[in-house]
């Protein structure tokens, strides 16, 4: 676990170590099957996988990343399903952006397991079943790592979390835990997920009221809480920017007074939370059909 946080070279060596990732996944699967999601070894395994998923898309060898792309042949231009893997080269990524998802391997090995739907479902299961804060935070953090960035892989993982594995209820529950670090990571994951325009309505329907409910009445005092508040505002920004319906949902759940209070907090005028709330307010005002409702 310590070695897995030793930087890019350490992560690279551990990802390449034959059988290591497979063994970690195997152990966690056994712990879940035995209804023991709270033991220390499971926590350690998940924390290692969390660290190994950090900057995964960027750190994949370029030749490997490019070779996994399925060349687009005989597929209509209307098919916008993104591919599953990123690459360091922006040009290649742009060229391959409309690549279809390759078939998932039924028996992934090594580094392929890190973005496979099997492990995504394991993380979601641990989020729902474990009561260890570090295990919950590491599971959320691994999904946060996998959904970071703008390449095809993060969007494919996001779609699996939201639509294929029905992960939003488990993530939503983490918004209401007492542990600040767990809540912050859950919000950061939702912020990543909400960047995917095709998932925004699903996310808004499932978690927007909860996001509003955990917004503080003003800029919070602690750094972690301030960071969480800023992430909530940016998530709400993503969900409402292109949707008048979602903006109205924010209004009906009494989010506007909170956002206004956070944006004009005098004691911390330049905090990231105040800035994020101001950006959200500016975006909300762009929905001209809601102006009279806002004024009321």
From TrEMBL:
Stated name of the protein: PKP2 protein
Family: Belongs to the beta-catenin family.
Domain of life: Eukaryota
InterPro entries: ARM-like (IPR011989), ARM-type_fold (IPR016024), Armadillo (IPR000225), Plakophilin/d_Catenin (IPR028435)
Lineage of origin: Eukaryota, Metazoa, Chordata, Craniata, Vertebrata
UniProt subcellular location: Cell junction
Chain intervals with Basic and acidic residues compositional bias: 94-107
Keyword Repeat among UniProt keywords: yes
SUPFAM superfamilies xrefs: ARM repeat
Cellular component GO terms, alphabetical: adherens junction; cytoplasm; intercalated disc; nucleus; plasma membrane
Xref: Gene3D superfamilies: Leucine-rich Repeat Variant
GO BP: cell-cell adhesion; desmosome organization; heart development; intermediate filament bundle assembly; protein localization to plasma membrane
Stretch list, region Disordered: 79-109
Alphabetized UniProt keyword annotations: Cell adhesion, Cell junction, Repeat
